[in-house]
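Tokens for Demethylmenaquinone methyltransferase. Go.
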Amino acid sequence: MKVVPYKDQKGSKKEQVADMFNNISKRYDLLNHLLSMGIDIYWRKQAVKILKKHQPELVLDIATGTGDFAIQALDAKPKKIIGVDISEGMLAVGKEKIKKAGLEDKIELRMGDSEKLLFEDNKFDAVIVSFGVRNFENLEKGLSDMFRVLKPGGKLIVIEFSKPKVFPMKQLYNFYFKNILPLIGKIISKDQSAYTYLPESVNAFPDGEKFTGILDKIGYKETLCKPLTFGICSIYTGSK
């Protein structure tokens, strides 16, 4: 059974995820930094360090949300970043943020389904995703479409939550994710389901070697998993 945000509602996971992010979009950035205690910024910077080494000119940011990863990825000096997302609410916040920063010539945000990308084959030098792949309706389909739009030799970089396995971080993490995080998320976002879905979706996600195994199966080469912050988060990389 797939993990979905709203168990009492009909609709596909994709539809429910879009609704959820529309509901929390105006509070998302605040909650993201608050609930991670700002560590999410460090995680993105570590991913961009990897991206820099490949000197990409054209980058696709999947599940771009409010554009934080796209903005951070400008440190890699690409000519252009295109961000796609299924949530109109998140994109509206992101577009306003990019406009205020004067970055409209560098970053373009579009509505887009990560599993049906409206781009030709072999287009992008790099595809990046920050905390988005666990929300896919069909994980392998989404990863396969990313592979399709990557140029030969292009780089995939995925940041995603993972599950710590060492005492006491494992126990502390589980307590925080199951008890503290949903409570704070509910109070600030006014959406009880969104921050209950987060730990459930992380728990269901095939992290570590399971995820790199899926990348290998699809055809990515040189796949690696780099755990960060005691395994709370991991950066996954692969090449076409």
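Strands lie at 58-62, 80-85, 107-111, 124-130, 150-161, 221-228, 233-239.
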